[in-house]
Every structure is written in structure tokens, then in C-alpha cells.
């Protein structure tokens, strides 16, 4: 028998009882999640430092505060999010009530990754709770210290009747996915995403896949190079490069590269000192396997800045590569580490064509003092998200959706978009029992006269057009 079957049957029984539907219950759970973030903050900071060598500053701004904002956004707006949306009607339904009911899916599964083990686990959880679902959370076993804090702490705050945390590696996750869920939310690699999607297909389960990709960062010849370098270095080497929306490579002309390089060097020195290994603000790769994979990418191109490594500490210095070729591994796979290759092209048009012929990334960036250049990159490329003249900052807005397109995933979340993701928009029409004479137009035996009246009562006409007969 499946080891998770009993637990899931209990959650489904709770779901069927309707306990999660009232707004009061949802708010109570969200408030409890907010208390968990406040009261367990020091434990979370300690766990993040053990797993990824994250500083308290970085843990606060990229994990705890980020998640707390989502909790507050949901609490502030849940009343309006849950309300029925009344919709327009045609002549045939003029006296009826047409609306969209926001129904929860049921028992949902959230599988989160190791790189941001709090935010990428709990932000989807905020929306799942707000939408009225019962939730199974599967945090990453790779970030084991954070997994332990979530596993031991969350059940003391959230209702165990409607929420559960499960642990384990690939074998346990495979067993978990044999069960039927009403929605699956996965954040992680493309290869594992395909496995999740295959498992979901067996039960025809809808899902969101938040994957990754090679996020391009175009730097134009017309820009403030030091400001651009500061923002690129911060966004790339945050969390030791283990960020799914970090710039994966810079793409620019040779002239631009020569102007950008000393600015990158200056920013890296100002941020992390002459020896980044001693900086309390520079993290580490999560484990030796990740270290080995990323270190192998140093064989691509030429090391222009950094390149130092220490296997015993899972340390790779902030590194910039030049003279990389499109065929080399660093330009073929997602880097997901502190290595920034600079790929050179002739001009903006060639950069856009290069980006367009690759799989759509999770994010794209463009730096230029000319707004037309930034908008040209935005208009003629495709990506999950876009940010002009900065890195990652579009992620800080709960008003913007976050998600991929094509090979970088599908579905979206953050703010109301997370609520919508875990909500079934149920089309609803309430009619009265009277006025049956109007319904006879659609009943057999059919007549052409009735067809004309029925089409007139249900047709959608183009607005703003004047037709002369």
C-alpha cells in the first residue's frame, strides 16, 4: 500500500467537510503562517546559513520579508479575491444572474526546491491556503536544515487536519506522486519537471511548472556602465548564483564588453572584497554535486575575473568568462552558479536574433540609456518576465505575475496570481423557473423564424462599427 495514502485520505475527508471554505478559516491560517515567519525567524536564518551560507541580510530580503509580503497581500485582499464576479449577459439571459464562483481545487501538492527553500515553498502555500485548499508541502531534502525547520515548525502553526509536510528524496517523491492530487505546483529543474508532468497526466491533474532557463542580459553601448555592472553583479552573484531568474549570460558587442569589464571588476571588489571567500555576504553552492557541475563550466571560454575554487567548502569565486562559444557547455546549460559568461555579438539586431532562436527563458534583461533599445528587446523577444535597466526587481512586486513560458515552465503566481492559480473559476448561471415561453424558441420542432429570434438574442456584435445597408 502507498505509504501516503492514509494521510491523503484524511486530508481529503477534511476537504470534503468544507472546513477550508470559510474566509475566517483561511485568514486564521494565513495569520498563523505570518506568526511562524516572525517567531521562527532566527531558526530560519540559521538554517539558511547552514544550507547555503546565506547572510541574515540576504535571508531577510529574499526569503522571510518576501514571503511575509505575500501573506500581508493575501490578508489585505482576500475578501475581494473571493467575491463572485458578476458578468455581462445577452438578451436571452437578461433576467438571470451570471457570475464566476471562486472554488478551491481540493487537496493540492507543492514541491519546492533548495535554492530559496523558504520563499519557494511558502509563497505558493500562501495562495493555496487563501484559495481554500488542503495542502501537502514537500520541501527540498537538499536544503536539509531548512527542511527540518519547516517540517518541525509548520505543523505547530497550521491546522494538521488540512495541512501536512512530507519529507524524503526522489524515491519518496515518486511514491507521493502515485496518489491523486487536485493540483500540483512544482518549482525546480526542467528534467524533474517532465517527471512531475508525466505523473500528473496519469490522474489528469492540472499543474504549474516553475522551471528555469538561460536568462539573457543585453548591455547596450549607450548606458551607464558602472550602474549596469553594479546591478548585474548583485543579481548574478546573489545566493552564489543559485537563482532561477539570475542573468545567465551577458550578451553585448566587443566594444561594450571592454567598457563593462572594469566596471564588473570594480563592483565585485566593492561588494565582496579582494577575497570573496572571506566575505560574509557571499554564499556557497548547496552541495558537492552542484559544485562539481558548476566547476566543470569553468573550462568554457577564458576566465577574466575570479575562477578560484575550493571543493571542501563548495566555494566557487564570483567569476566572469570571456571568449565563450555558443557550442560550449556554459552557453548550452543553465549555469545556476557564480559564473557569468559574456557572449559577444555585432549589434543589437544580432543579439535579439540570438535570444529568439533559443528556448524562451524565465527572465530577460536589457540595459541601455535609450528607452527604444530596452523596448526593442522587450518587443522582439519572449521570456517569462522582463526587467529593463535592473536585475530581479520585477520579482519584488506582488502586482506582477511570475512564471515561465515554453521550456521555462507554465503557470504564474505572486499576489493574486497565486490565489488564481489554486482557484477553479467556476462559470455559474442562475435562472428562474418562469417565463418558459421565451425558452420555446430553442425547443424542437425547430423553425427558421425561431432561429432568427434566438440568434438575435444571443449574438455578440462588434462594437464601434457603423454598417450602411
SS strand fraction: 15-25%
Distance between the termini: 72 Å
Number of strands: 18
Radius of gyration, CA atoms, in whole angstroms: 26 Å
Described by the principal axes of the CA atoms, the overall outline is globular
Biggest sheet, spatial arrangement of strands:
10-13-14-9-8-15-16
**What kind of sheet is the major sheet?**
7 strands, mixed
Features:
469 residues; alpha/beta; 7-stranded mixed sheet; 6-stranded mixed sheet; 16 helices
Question: Describe it for me?
Answer:
The protein starts with a helix and ends in an 11-residue tail after the last helix. The chain is globular, with a radius of gyration of 26 Å. Helix 2 packs antiparallel against helix 4, helix 3 packs across helix 4 and helix 4 runs parallel beside helix 5. The chain is built from 16 helices and 18 strands. By secondary structure, the protein is α/β, with parallel strands linked by helices.
Secondary-structure topology with pairs:
Blueprint: H1 5-17, H2 23-39, H3 41-52, H4 56-82, E1 85-86, E2 97-104, E3 107-111, H5 119-130, E4 134-138, H6 144-153, E5 163-165, H7 170-177, E6 183-187, H8 190-202, E7 207-210, E8 216-219, H9 225-237, E9 249-252, H10 254-272, H11 288-296, E10 302-305, E11 309-310, E12 315-316, E13 319-322, E14 339-344, H12 348-356, E15 363-367, H13 371-380, E16 385-388, E17 409-410, H14 416-421, E18 423-430, H15 436-439, H16 448-458
Parallel strand pairs: 3-4, 3-6, 4-5, 6-7, 8-9, 8-15, 9-14, 13-14, 15-16
Antiparallel strand pairs: 1-2, 2-18, 7-17, 10-13, 11-12
